[in-house]
Amino acid sequence: MIKVIKEGILLQKTNHAFENEGVLNPAAIREGNFVHLLYRAVREGNHSSIGYCKLKGPLFIETRNEEALLSPEFDYESQGIEDPRIVKIEDTYYLTFTAYDGVNALGCLATSKDLIHFEREGIIVPQITYEEFNALAASKGMINDKYFRYNQHDRIPKKEGETMLIWDKNLIFFPRKINGKLLFLHRIRPEIQLVVATEKLTDLTPQFWREYFLHFNEYIVLQPKYKHEVSYIGGGCPPIETAFGWLLIYHGVHDSLEGYVYAACAALLDLENPQKELARLPYPLFVPEFHWELKGEVNNVCFPTGAVVFEDTLYIYYGAADERIACASTSLSALLAELMLNKI
Length: 344
Description:
It is built from five helices and 23 strands. The strands form six sheets. Strands 16, 17, 18, 19 and 20 form a five-stranded antiparallel sheet that branches. The chain has a four-stranded antiparallel sheet with strand order 1-23-22-21. Strands 2-3-4-5 form a four-stranded antiparallel sheet, with no helix packed on it. It has a single domain (4-340), classed as Tachylectin-2, Chain A (5 Propeller). By secondary structure, it is mostly beta strands. The radius of gyration is 19 Å and the shape is globular.
């Protein structure tokens, strides 16, 4: 078993109006000796924006904004912008998040050169109903029965006059182009999928998505496999490039008598073909165990969304019980060695 140190709570809600209900699920990126955290901030009424905090080293707060860095601007994000992740590709930061309008939750992108000014790129995942998805994805073979369970919205086609779409969340870019092309993970429950072969975002046309869903099974990267992830899985932190492959810290969910339990998990993907899974831990990397992970807005949650490396230590930032931000650390080399003992 891998030794994981729970570093404890890093950020909690404040009296500032934009984050007076909770803070959680931070994006993280290291630059020099500093770490930028862009986190989900929740205000009264469960409306989310993105807050900002700068760390010196992996754990010490240097500055923290008293106002939201990014707030909802468009109808499709009127209820909030949630669960950011961030990477830097060449000279541009790619900040992804989930936009929620009270009905649909869809992956969006904003880009920046300086982490101060952001240009909204809008929704970049498909906007498709379950019926449309199923007609395409199942046309060339069976798909997991759980896609029906999680995505057909109890057969309600519309809510508040708005068409119910498949929820497509956990949008996460790889931190560099592969063979000259952008790649990103996304998640239509219960599995993690990969979008490949996009040279530019304008390639993501309705025809692109039609072809994608016609070959949907080919783009499933990870499926629930072990007991701690049997209900569903989803992307966590942006992939970390190592000599052994892309290290992916993701979340796994299983049902219990007390409801769903969210744990942090780890896998390796092939460097040049990330559709290929190389290894996976057969047990969770860490699980809810302390009171601040067990009790909160949503109980029993460790939801990893950002990770950085200092020397040989991997620091994983995560939402704890959907109310606060915590950090866990482990030896990167030890984790990779353990993964290599659990090759697929």
